[in-house]
Every structure is written in structure tokens, then in C-alpha cells.
Write a structure and sequence with these properties.
It is a single chain. The chain is an alpha/beta fold. The protein has one domain: Alpha/Beta hydrolase fold, catalytic domain (Rossmann fold, 3-Layer(aba) Sandwich), CATH 3.40.50.1820. It is built from nine helices and eight strands. The chain has an eight-stranded mixed beta sheet, sandwiched between helices. Strand 5, helix 3 and strand 6 form a beta-alpha-beta unit. Helix 2 crosses helix 3.
Length: 265
Amino acid sequence: MAPNDSTIAKVDGIELGYRIVGDGAPLVLLHGGFGTFEMFGPTVELLAAGRQVIGVDLQSHGRSPAADRPMTFEAMADDMAELIRSLGLRRAGIMGFSLGGGVALRTAIQHPDVVERLVLVSTVFKREGWYPEMRAGMDAMGPETADFMRKTPLYTAYEQVAPNVEDWPVLVQQVSEVVKIPYDWSADIPGLSSPTMLVIGDADGIPPSHAVEFFGLLGGGQRDAGFDRSGMTHHRLAILPGVTHYDINLVPALAEAVIPFLDGA
């Protein structure tokens, strides 16, 4: 599909743009901050080889018109649940990266009935999970960031699909605000009912120790699985070698890691 072969859905009082690629079991794919569906590059085709990938541009991102409401993880999670239902799907897998991972996680917390399987890529369960330098970068963002980011590939991708490129400062302002909001969802993690896979790079913006703590809250890594695998939970943890926060969405190892999990292996 070409970048502009997309559909607009009205959900939760806003409009969301999305693309569908492939056939089979549905997987909602959520990009990172300032990104678009295209942020996943070749990963989309790898995932779509065996399933229907529904690539959603989050609130005010990409092909989704700028929304006149504050950006919060909770509101965007409601958007995803309503979109899944509006597509006539009983349940879907959800895979989110970074900001999109936070939205995917909140969707599973708030609307477990619509989530078949959950893949969280470079995702924290609390804001303090990011490295201090990552949080400092988030804290430094503001309206002036819009002009600086016009020189980045993120703006180039936005420019190619946005219905109104003049709304770029709106997106930057909304993302700058949501990434500063303090949160800690640790109390909600043990209650997640969907099989969940955590994926980070070993040089990510998140220390491996946070991913291990996250996995522990899910009940993983508590004991030896045994010869019969009876000590294994239905959750998974993958730490990809030589991968950073800035390329994990593109490396073939990401699809190779998550496809068996999505297939129920």
C-alpha cells in the first residue's frame, strides 16, 4: 500500500488515521512518539506475512488530524479499544513501541476484553524506568522543539501523510506534555490477563534491569521452568543484542522475536 492508502475512523471524539496490511489474525501496531505507521519500516511486511496488521497513527500523529484535547495514555488507550470494536473485531493483538507501547499497555489494563496478546517494545511501566538522560530529554521538550525537529526524519515522515502539516506544533506540544506526566502502573501489571511479551534492546533507553523487574511483576523469571516447562508463565522477555532505542523498530530481530509469540508458540 502507498503511504496515503489509509482510512480515517471517528473514535472517542477524535479522528484516527490507520492503514491495514496483510490478512489473518488482527494485530494493532502502534508507533513511537512523533512517528507514523511507517516508523516500523520493513518490520511491517515481516509481521503482515502471517497476519492483518492495523497500523494506527496515534492522536495528532501522522495521518490522524490534530485533536483538540490533552494527550494522555489513558485517553489514547480508550481510542484503541473503540477502534478495535468499530472494526468489528472481538479481540486483537496489540504491539506498541515506546509511546505506543505505553498506549498498548494502558489498553490492556483498561480494556482487557479487546486484547488477545500484548507486545511491548521499549516500554516502561513507570516514568522512572527510563534512563535519567532520557527523562531529562523529555523534560527539556517544549513548543520550541517543533522548529528543531523540522530538520529530522520524523518531520519528513509526518509531512508526507499529515492532512495539515501546519499542525506539527500541535503534535509537538501534546507529546511534550504527555511525556512529562509522572506515572507508575506497577500495581496494575500483575493483573494483566493477556499473554504479554516485553522486548528491549541491550543498549535501549531503558536499562535491562527495568525490563527484568517488569517481567517479574508479570510473574516471569521466578523459578526454573523444569524439563516439562511447567514452571514457565505465558509471558515472555526478549533482550535483543546490539540494538538501541533508535533502531529496534527496524531490525529484523524484532519480528523474528515476536512472531512466534503472536502465533501462540
